[in-house]
Each structure stands twice: as structure tokens, then as C-alpha cells.
Specification:
The protein is an alpha/beta fold. The protein is built from 17 helices and 18 strands. It has three domains: about 150 residues, Flavodoxin domain (Rossmann fold), CATH 3.40.50; about 30 residues; about 290 residues, D-Maltodextrin-Binding Protein, domain 2. Helix 1 crosses helix 6 and helix 3 packs parallel to helix 4. The protein is globular, with a radius of gyration of 25 Å. It starts with a strand and ends in a 6-residue tail after the last strand.
């Protein structure tokens, strides 16, 4: 059964960043699919992959593509038009490729735009989708590719909704099983059996930042009546979502041993991240996600001391452009590149920053020498045989044992203006609606944790309640402290 969708992107060579953004989008979708257990893989190609031979493009569009995406700014060039006509001919003959045309929004209808419209009307059932900027293009392409993935899953014998529901059920069951085991351990080892257990979930940079910024918290992994589990940020959103939807009515009478999830994240969340299992009105009727900005981090690559390259020798900082060149050299020279987990805030920042420089961080783009931090251990071959490596981390995200033993050095990453590329470190947790929707309720353990970080919370949180000032899905508590 087919589990791969092959995509060809057509458009003028001047739309370089558009193609890079879409390539990064496809890599992110593949990462999300792997995390969800979805078997579908997307492969995206353009002239960059196929060389300068037009016959290769034509053969690829006509015989190998499942989807053809056409990017148009204000007009469709002759080569793009020829590729469009070839795709429509193949579509009528074989049923593929499916055609999507994305056109930049226009202020006035020009003859060139009318020509594109006429071309679409005459030669296919397609229509163009307007986009306002690159972010809007990404969102609209993602929406359509997600629909194609769902359709392919449905053809595999299971409807997308049912498959997603089943995946959620199995994910929830697996999570509950793990949590049940942890509860048994807590029951065995902890004397106080009445407290809610704080479940810290998230990335390494957030944990390290929290411990350094707030020494009174101590070691997060040993924090009283809590558990800390390292997972990519994107995997923690559904857990908080589920907590708001399922436990909103328990208020301060939550049952013994219930877990209260707290996401430690190096990623700025948008509302859609918490709406995977509900709609907006359902969510805000039950609660909101409360956020607290605890500090900032900056990107830093860690380079093995024995690896020498003119770009980095004698430097403690390099530009993002130089890092892109370093990664290209590394992939050619057999240098290992270690990254954080797919879905982590740190890797997301790297990919967003490197995309304008033709660099995509993935095994597909850079080869098999891309791997995760977890494989950089004292016993790993990469350390014992003196092979060179780069770790794409941050000030707070590093393989600590390797760094502390002096195996590598840190190099700060700067933007084109010479400023460090920074990311926010944020806590996300559930606030449940109480008092007829005028307040958020949070448990004693979270109140105590917040007050240890900032004593001003004693003036904000009264009787476990925080005033509810709006009906947003994400509410920043930093605004309450100003």
C-alpha cells in the first residue's frame, strides 16, 4: 500500500526562499507524522534536486509526482506555464499529479493575473489560493498537504478521523499506563499521599534555564512531589489540552495522586497548538493555558576541540550565515551533526534561522551523519575515535557530561545584525475556570512553585485563584506582575 506522497514545486528561480520554507515544512510534517505513528512520508522536489535538464522536470512531473505545487508571484513564467500544462495533461490522462496553485495577493487585477486565471479555467479544475506572505503560504500549503495525508490514510482502509482518534486513544492509554506506574512508585516512596504531583514535561534547555535562573527551585528532577520527563515541546501540548478538557470541573477537590502537567518549553506557543482535540469555545469554557516567561536562551553550537575549520578557529561567535556554511562543509567532510529532538523549540529555531541559507537539518537533506544528542555519550564511537562533530544546541541545551569534560567548546550564533539569536523559555500549565468564569484555579503545588520563582505571585494568587481578565486560550501571567 502506498505510504509516500511525492511533491514537485514549480515556480521561478527567484522564489528561492519559498521553496526552502516549503521544504522545511515538509520535514516538520514528516517529524509530526512519525511522532503520531502516521505511516505517510512526504518527499518534496524542485529544480534544485533535478539539475538543469528540463526533460528531467517533465518526466518527474508527468510520471513520478503525486502533487504539483505551482508558486506564482504576479505572473506565470513560460517554463512554469509549460510545466503547468504538462501536469494538467498528466492529470487528465492518469489522475495524477493533483495540482495546487498558490498566488501572492494582488491589489489590482493585471493582464498577467487574468492570464493565470484563464489558464486555470481552460486547462484544469484547479483554482489558485492567495497568500499574503511566506508564513501565510506555509500555513495554507500545510493545510492542503494535511488533507492529502488524511485522504491517503482513508484509502488505506481507515478514515482519518478514526485513525487519529485511535492514535489519540492509544497515546492516552500509553501515557496513562506510564503515569500509573509512576503513581505506584510515588505511593511506595512518598509519605505525603494527598498532594497533586507536578508533571514537568518538556525540553532540556528549559529545565537548565529554570534551575539557573531560580536556584531556590533546585534540581527540577528532584523537586518535591514532582516528576520531570524530557520530551519535545510539541508532544506536551496534547497533555495540557487533555488536562483542561477533562479536569476543569474538579477544582480544588482533585483526587489523590492526579498529575498536573507543566510544560517547560523553548517555544512560543500559538493557540492552535492547544486545539488538536477540541474547538475554541469548548476550550475557553473550561479554562485556559497559563504561561509564565522565565528567561531567555540563545543558540550556540558546540564543536569538538579536535575539529578545525577556518570558519570557527579562534572564534567564540559566528553568524548564522557562517553556521550554514559550516554545516555544508560538515556534511561533505564527514562531521557528525547532533541535534535536539524533532519538535523541540531549539531545533525549530535552528531550522527557521537556517532556511534562508539553503540549509535543512534532517537526515534526508544532510545524510545519515545527522543524529540526536542522546547518542553523544561517553561510550559512543564518535567520542572514542576522535571523529569531529557539531552539536546544534543553545546556552542551556548541551550534552552536559561531554561539555563539562572539556571535549568540546561553545560558539554563540549571531544574526546578520550581530545579535545573539535568542529564544524564550516559558512555562505552560492549565488554569481551570471557577467562580462563574471570573477566575482561574490552580492547585496548591503549582501556587507554591510559582511563588518560589517570584514572590510577587503572593499578591496575584489568592485562595488558589487568579483573576480571569479575558477569554484567550493562552494567558500570560507576566502581565499580572507588571
Amino acid at each position: 500500500m502506498k505510504t509516500t506522497l511525492t511533491i514537485f514545486v514549480s515556480g521561478s528561480k527567484g522564489l528561492k526562499e519559498h521553496r526552502l520554507r516549503l521544504k522545511a515544512l515538509v520535514n516538520n510534517l514528516n517529524g509530526e507524522n512519525r511522532l503520531k505513528g502516521c505511516p505517510v512520508t512526504l518527499n518534496m522536489f524542485s529544480y534544485v534536486n533535478l539539475g538543469d535538464n528540463q526533460s528531467e522536470y517533465d518526466d518527474f512531473i508527468e510520471n513520478k509526482s503525486d502533487i504539483a505545487i505551482f508558486l506564482v508571484e504576479d505572473r506565470m513564467g513560460e517554463k512554469t506555464k509549460d510545466e503547468f500544462l504538462l501536469a494538467t495533461k498528466a492529470l487528465k490522462k492518469t489522475g495524477t499529479p493533483k495540482i495546487y496553485v498558490f498566488m501572492r495577493e494582488f491589489k489590482e487585477r493585471t493582464p498577467e493575473i487574468e492570464e493565470v486565471e484563464q489558464l486555470l479555467n481552460e486547462h484544469s479544475d484547479s483554482y489558485y489560493v492567495e497568500y499574503s506572505n511566506l508564513e501565510d503560504l506555509e500555513a495554507k500549503v500545510k493545510d492542503r498537504l494535511s488533507s492529502e495525508i488524511n485522504a491517503l490514510m482513508e484509502n488505506m482502509g481507515e478514515s482519518p478521523k478514526k485513525r487519529i482518534r485511535n492514535m489519540r486513544i492509544w497515546t492516552l492509554l500509553a501515557t496513562l499506563l506510564c503515569l500509573s506506574c509512576l503513581v505506584l512508585l510515588l505511593t511506595h516512596y512518598r509519605l505525603n499521599k494527598e498532594k497533586v504531583t507536578l508533571l514537568f514535561i518538556g525540553g532540556g534547555s528549559a529545565v537548565s534555564c529554570l534551575e539557573e535562573q531560580f536556584p531556590e527551585i533546585g534540581n527540577v528532577y528532584d523537586y518535591e512531589n514532582s516528576i520531570c520527563i524530557a520530551v519535545p515541546t510539541s508532544s506536551s501540548w496534547p497533555i495540557i489540552n487533555s488536562d483542561v478538557m477533562q479536569h476543569h470541573a474538579i477544582k480544588n477537590k482533585r483526587s489523590t495522586h492526579l498529575f498536573y502537567p507543566v510544560c517547560l518549553s523553548a517555544m512560543d506557543a500559538d493557540e492552535s497548538m492547544f486545539l488538536k482535540m477540541s474547538n475554541r469555545s469548548q476550550f475557553v469554557n473550561k479554562g485556559s493555558v497559563l504561561s509564565y516567561h522565565i528567561g531567555d536562551d540563545y543558540l550556540a553550537t558546540y564543536v569538538k576541540n579536535t575539529y578545525h575549520n577556518p570558519i570557527i578557529d579562534g572564534k567564540d561567535s559566528i553568524s548564522i550565515r557562517e553556521l550554514a556554511a559550516l554545516i555544508r562543509d560538515a556534511s561533505k567532510e564527514g562531521v557528525m551533526i547532533f541535534t535536539t529532538e524533532v519538535g523541540s523549540g531549539t531545533l525549530t529555531y535552528y531550522q527557521k534561522s537556517l532556511t534562508p541559507y539553503d540549509v535543512t537539518i534532517s537526515k534526508e537533506a544532510l545524510g545519515e551523519r545527522v543524529d540526536k544528542f542522546t547518542d553523544l555519550t561517553p561510550r559512543s564511537i564518535i567520542r572514542r575515535d576522535e571523529s569531529p562533530y557539531l552539536m546544534l544546541g543553545s546556552r542551556f541545551y548541551v550534552a552536559k557530561e561531554v561539555y563539562k569534560q572539556g571535549d568540546c567548546r561553545s560558539i554563540k550564533i549571531l544574526d546578520e545584525s550581530g545579535n545573539p539569536i535568542s529564544k524564550s523559555i516559558i512555562l505552560y500549565f492549565a488554569g481551570y475556570n471557577v467562580d462563574e468564569g471570573t477566575s482561574f484555579w490552580i492547585p496548591d503545588e503549582m501556587v507554591e512553585f510559582l511563588q518560589k520563582m517570584d514572590p510577587r505571585f503572593k499578591d496575584v494568587i489568592k485562595d488558589n485563584r487568579i483573576p480571569r481578565e479575558n477569554e484567550r486560550i493562552i494567558v500570560s501571567l507576566n502581565n499580572y506582575l507588571k
